[in-house]
Specification:
Layout lengths: L5 E2 L1 E3 L1 H7 L1 H7 L2 H11 L4 E2 L3 H4 E6 L5 E5 L5 E8 L10 E4 L14 E3 L6 E5 L4 E4 L9 E9 L10 H6 L11
Antiparallel strand pairs: 1-5, 2-4, 3-11, 4-11, 5-10, 6-9, 6-11, 7-8, 7-10
Length: 177
C-alpha cells in the first residue's frame, strides 16, 4: 500500500480459525450479520477467504503502527481488546472517507478517533483510506480483533497485502510490511 509502514504483531485468519473456534463462531453469528446488514443497508456476508476473514493486530512497542491502506473487502468490524487510555499515547484510528488515493493527499480530510478497550467500530474500509497512528511510549498496547465482511459480488481479494500480513509465514512477526 504505497510503502506505508506496518510495524505490528499479527495473528492471521488460519491460525485463529484453528486455535479459536469461538472467534469463528462469533464471526458467523446470524444476529451479528443481521445487525451489520441493518446498519449498512447492504447484503453483508462473511468473507470466504480465510486469511483475512478475522485477524488480530497488536501494537505493543513505541513506534508500532498500521500504516495507511484500504482493505480488500468493504466492511471492517474492529473490536478493541486493549487500547491506550490516553490519546497522546497513539494508537488512534485516522481515516479519510471516500478517499482511496495512497499516500493520502494533503487536501484529504483526516479524522482521528481514540478508542478504549471494549469499544468497536464499523468502517467502510474499501473506500476509506485509514491508518493507526504510532504508539508513543513503552508499556502501551493496542490489540484489536478485526472481522472483514463483504457482499455477495465482492468475494475476490484485489491485493496480496493480506497474505503478506497474515499468512503463516509472516503472522506473529513484530515487523510486517
Amino acid at each position: 500500500m504505497g510503502g506505508s509502514p506496518r510495524h505490528m504483531t499479527t495473528i492471521g485468519g488460519p491460525a485463529l480459525a484453528t486455535g479459536s473456534p469461538l472467534i469463528s463462531e462469533l464471526y458467523r453469528q446470524p444476529s451479528l450479520i443481521g445487525l451489520l446488514r441493518t446498519v449498512t443497508g447492504e447484503p453483508v456476508v462473511p468473507v470466504r477467504e480465510v486469511t483475512e476473514r478475522h485477524v488480530v493486530n497488536i501494537l505493543h512497542h513505541p513506534g508500532d503502527t498500521h500504516g495507511e491502506h484500504i482493505d480488500d473487502y468493504p466492511f471492517a468490524l474492529v473490536l478493541f481488546l486493549e487500547a491506550p487510555a490516553d490519546p497522546r499515547d497513539g494508537g488512534l484510528l485516522e481515516y479519510s472517507p471516500r478517499t482511496t488515493a495512497l499516500p493520502l493527499p494533503d487536501a484529504a480530510p483526516l479524522h482521528r478517533r481514540h478508542h478504549h478497550a471494549g469499544d468497536a467500530y464499523l468502517l467502510r474500509s474499501d473506500t476509506t483510506a485509514h491508518r493507526v497512528s504510532p504508539l508513543t511510549r513503552p508499556g502501551v498496547r493496542r490489540t484489536v480483533l478485526n472481522f472483514a465482511y463483504t457482499t455477495p459480488d465482492r468475494q475476490a481479494a484485489r491485493t496480496r497485502s493480506a497474505q503478506l500480513l497474515y499468512d503463516d509465514e509472516n503472522a506473529g512477526s513484530e515487523e510486517t510490511r
